[in-house]
């Protein structure tokens, strides 16, 4: 039985200009729901369950916000990179205001 | 008659009966169910969530064909939210613990999440999310109530939709065939409503402030999406004026567009003119191309500042500019106008918080940029960085003296040096231009011409400043007239100065979208016009009927006239000679 893995990592949100908004949050939650691990994101005292986009959105993290990512469980190791990638995305044109979206 | 001012977010004019949407949205009575019904409510809840998710995915599919994948993806994200474990858990818990109905539980659960956003204070992100959550709640309630469909999808008669605010879903199902315009009390130029209205090309004005209590459904209203006006109970004269405007709009679209797109804007005697589009949002670049524009003659960059509590970042500027340049490609120029904030534009923004007694004669536009150099430099850096993606040109607005122009250029040089030092690529030979829209600049045009590569004449401000008349002030609005002989003389001075110095001169104010002025301007020596993209096909049609020699005669004659009224009637007569079906 492999020891349960626990990874704690600090991540700075990108996804300009809105940060952790609707699309990255739903993508993040969807990914977590398909993994065998518990994921928590926290911003100061606010903690969000990684499986819930609602919870994640409640963190209100614009670009530049430093979040603490905690992953615990079987899939922890392979989860880190894709999860961080979502948070530090370059943002899409579609995330900027204006008919870019 | 009552004229209300808002933010013009989608151009066009519409006249019609008002459809007033409930200010409160859908009201949910507090309702509890008996203990035996609880399981049934939970089932209803789950079914509604599944259905909502399914509908959102469907909407995503249909909208991606209609509006492109990026807008449609908003609904893919919505679909994800309906499956959110916390929403499901919380709503179910509310039903089980309190015997709530599914409707009430949904409403409570969503509002609890919104409250958390509220508590964190306002930010662009929070505002955006609030709108999405309101939408989400509404969708679920409609499904749960088995409502007889949304009011907006049941419209069959042409109407103008008036509402406090519209959710993205509501705006997205609007059919331009029946919904001829939108006006909302709240909202800003970057709200989803504004974006969707623009993409659907439905004239729209948002941020009008409270007006719903002053109007009942069925009243005739006018929405002027060019000037951002909502006119309640219009008088006969105003109605007439807007009916003409609307007629002209309609004739410009449709047939002409298809027919004119791929032929050059050339006069009968072979003079090639350039017709550019004025844009505000990057998405409008496509509208320019669709209508066969030769480029973007005026890219207003203020939209980046609307609804923002903090200044946009260099990256936000850059992304927007890069998008437009890539869309236009290497052969079509894109003239980016640096920030023109102040006056009537977004007063109360960063750096504009102090009160001015006379904002139009105050710290606006390039004056504000010169006072707030970090802001100015951020934009210039982004513009320079974007220059490698196409044929970019920089233009400074509201320049009133040669000194200001020198300052702008020296700041631009500083930014160029910074970029060189940081080894960030940019084009070193970007053409630099100035707007001519202050009478002092027009008078000094020969001097200014030596400092720049092109002029762009902004007739709106030039007319207002020359005649000292605010066109939004009804009592003096009749003085505001581009046909005034004083304006013709100033135009002649500026165009001559440009032609003598062999630099380009473009007309980019509303005057250039007016068919009546085409001959005059051509005759005065203008070869480039920049107007709202949707005007381009009609302008091209007119250009192809013009003759340089005739136009020069028309310009010469017009300059002899003494009043705006004489000029107008003369130019109309001349237009009718070449286009017998031209509107009065």
TL;DR of this structure?
The complex is a heterodimer of chains A (101) and B (584). By secondary structure, chain A is of the alpha+beta class.
CATH architecture of chain A: 2-Layer Sandwich
Overall pLDDT score of chain B: 86
How many strands appear in the DSSP assignment of chain A?
Answer: 4
Give the total of domains of chain B: 3
Which structural class should the secondary elements of chain B be placed in? Answer: alpha/beta
Tally the structural domains of chain A: 1
Count all strands of chain B and give the number. 16
| Span of the ends, CA to CA of chain B | 24 Å
Count of helical segments of chain A? Answer: 3
Q: Tell me the name of the CATH class of chain A.
A: Alpha Beta
CATH superfamily membership of chain A = HPr-like
Residues in β-strands, percent of chain A: 15-25%
Helical proportion of chain B? Answer: 40-55%
H/E series of chain A: EHEEHEH
By CATH, the topology of the largest domain in chain B is TIM Barrel
CATH class descriptor of the largest domain in chain B:
Alpha Beta
- The residue ranges of chain A in which pLDDT falls below 50 over 5 or more consecutive positions are 93-101
Judging by the overall fold, what is the CATH architecture of the largest domain in chain B? Alpha-Beta Barrel
CATH superfamily of the largest domain in chain B: Phosphoenolpyruvate-binding domains
Biggest sheet of chain B: strands side by side, in what order? 1-8-7-3-4-5-6-2
CATH overall fold name of chain A: Histidine-containing Protein, Chain: A
Features:
heterodimer; A: Histidine-containing Protein, Chain: A; 4-stranded antiparallel beta sheet; B: 584 residues; Glucose Oxidase, domain 1; Enzyme I, Chain A, domain 2; 8-stranded parallel beta barrel
